[in-house]
Amino acid sequence: MTDQTINEGLENVIVAETRRSYIDGDAGELVIAGYPLAELAEHATFEETVFLLWNDRLPTAEELASFRADLAAYRDLSDATLDLLRAAAADDADPMDALRMGVAAATLGHETDGPEDEARLLVAQLPTIVAAYWRLRNGNEPVAPDGDLSHAANYLYMLTGEKPTDAETRGLETYLNSVVDHGLNASTFSGRAIVSTETDLVSAVTGAVGALKGPLHGGAPGPVLDMLLDIHNSGDAAGYVEDKLDEGERIMGFGHRVYNVRDPRAAVLSSAAESFYESGGERAFFETAKTVETTTTDLLSERRPDLSLATNVEFYTAVLLHGIGIPSELFTTTFAIARVGGWTAHCLEQLDDNRIIRPRSAYVGGENREWQPVEER
Ligand code: COA
């Protein structure tokens, strides 16, 4: 008799070894390929982090230059992809749906040579797809990428048509590095399962985008921003939070399935947001966020001393991305622009030592049924 134990949601089931990232939920630690997140957030460009995830080491100056050139070569969208995005814009598609369509079409007009090359194409294309779609949906023509700008700066440039400030680029880069990988979350696992059939990475990442789109995965920073704007206007953090808790609602941006303490990404993003707002953003908005964090943490621990509910990644994501000028409708697509680094890294790791991912299910359906002709049903 084979083991019939069911682990719903695969909770606590280990299905792969990985060198990509390590999470310690009790200590509140996130390690990316051996480097504590804070270390990368302070020093790394997004290109360096992606190279690190793919190769398990940092690039030399020469490798970094060559990687930047590879990304620049793949950044333009083909006319066919642009036509597709125009059709999506005419239909007023949700940005994540448009991204899914654009990713699925990424090979149109671009030849790739094996999984590593597909990974480069995907990382390069996502910001261009999102920015082009956003402009088209707002009645503007897409802005072509600028080969002299970094990956993060290009995204901001293609969104607005204006070169971003260093502070904006650095803020976005810290965000991208903070959320690039996070163990076997649902979208990363989906990507690994798809590529384990030895299909291509474009198919795997298309599936991963679909998984990220679900509200249980990529969706909280928009509501966090709404809450913070509301409290910023009223000036009454405690009143807002108490009313929500009295109504039995959850406070967005607090609590996490894996972390029992403050999410380490919240710490990194909070410092990044503070530096950003000090260098020119609306400092008072950042102060509101800090007040909401302390007030909510205090109220939650008063009401639920049995739980440890601290700020999660979404809270300061909302603060930072809003400061940089990314519209909240693009928060999840911006998350995808970061996470594609992790998706592709996991796909390459899966292919390195592949075994098709093929779990079993416990059958609980009917037995010994007899066929009935259609006219008798
Ligand atoms: N505000 C108020 N109460 C919260 C809460 C929050 N943000 N998060 C969890 N709780 C409470 C729940 O109401 C529940 O109470 P109960 O025991 O009386 O039913 C208890 O904590 C456990 O919640 P549960 O949903 O089982 O925990 P989880 O580990 O599955 O939850 C989240 C993780 C992230 C889904 C949850 O904390 C949440 O919904 N947070 C708000 C949404 C959010 O910020 N999501 C982004 C995640 S990165």
Automatic annotation (TrEMBL):
One of its GO terms (molecular function) is citrate synthase activity. Signal peptide: none annotated. The active site is at residues 256, 314. GO terms for cellular component: cytosol. It catalyses: oxaloacetate + acetyl-CoA + H2O = citrate + CoA + H(+). It is an enzyme of class 2 (transferase). GO terms for biological process: carbohydrate metabolic process; tricarboxylic acid cycle. Keywords: Transferase. It comes from the Archaea. PANTHER family: CITRATE SYNTHASE, CITRATE SYNTHASE 2-RELATED. This is Citrate synthase. It comes from Haladaptatus paucihalophilus DX253.
